[in-house]
Amino acid sequence: MSHKKLDVLAEKGFVVLDSYGDLVDPQEWQSLEYVDWKSSGDTRFAPLASAYGEIECNGFWHFDPPKPDKDGVWIDSQTDKAPTLTWRAQEAGANVGRARIIELQPNSYADALYNSHLDDNNRLNPDGEGWIVRCFMQLTHNPDSYMILREDIKDPSTETRLALPAGAQLLVDSERMWHSVWHAGAEPRYCLITSYESGPELEKWVEANNPTTKTDQVELPEDVVIDSEMEAQNRRNARTAFYGYDPTEVRSEA
Ligand SMILES: [Fe+2]
């Protein structure tokens, strides 16, 4: 027995969905309570749903009783301030685990490659149940920033760059695909990230939003690609030497 997965993610490990359309009032994410939380890059998070309804972002397996990343508990003090964001996270009708807004400070392409990681989405998730994946709903308009995905972090030829205008929606098997964001803006980037359990509800919602993997690859100048790759790999190697192992071989709890 293995987990139930969405067929649509089998080929590439991600799909781009239709833009969600009407933009969300920035007041919704600006009014939320944020917590510092370890993730890739300089980040803070504002949870809408957490393991047991507290304003924190821990993996659900850290609690008593521990649980997989589903059956998240909505946090009234946060959802009251962000009704549209809450509705967006709930609209798919799938089981939601963690749902939170990420705030990411500007960084470089090399930073993004250095920070790239796999998520720990399915710890304690019983065999036979739905594989947990993540949906990224872009809030701020950052058309020159990119979600950087790789099937193999050590192989640049496996890279896909997905632009992040406001409204962009990406569904990613983030336990399979190495990922991080290169945020080239001057102001912080905000994005709603929701953990969903794969199943008929999620499949129906995805199909209604025209999933595709056919995206125009954003081309970068060759010297930028080479210099950033070398910088990132040198920094990754230095980090591995420092710790005695590559910490990104341990899936991220964020
Ligand atoms: Fe992640």
Describe the structure.
- With 254 residues, the protein is α+β, with helices and mostly antiparallel strands.
- Helices cover 22% and strands 26% of the residues.
- The protein has six helices and eleven strands.
- The strands form two sheets. Strands 1, 2, 3, 4, 5, 6, 9 and 11 form an eight-stranded antiparallel beta sheet that branches. It has a three-stranded antiparallel beta sheet with strand order 8-7-10.
- A hairpin with a 6-residue loop joins strand 2 and strand 3.
- Helix 4 runs parallel beside helix 6.
- The model has no long low-confidence stretch (mean pLDDT 95).
Total strands: the figure is 11
The CATH class label is Mainly Beta
Determine Rg (CA atoms, Å): 17 Å
Secondary-structure element order, N to C: EHEEEHHEHEEEEEEHH
Mean pLDDT, nearest integer?
95
Q: Roughly what percent helix?
A: 10-25%
Structural class: alpha+beta
Strand content: 25-35%
Distinct helical segment count: 6
Q: For the terminal residues, how far apart are their CA atoms?
A: 27 Å
CATH architecture: Sandwich
Tell me the overall shape: globular
The fold-level CATH name is Jelly Rolls
Instruction: Return the domain count.
Output: 1
Structural features:
globular; 254 residues; alpha+beta; single chain; Jelly Rolls; binds fe (ii) ion; 26% strand; 6 helices; 8-stranded antiparallel sheet
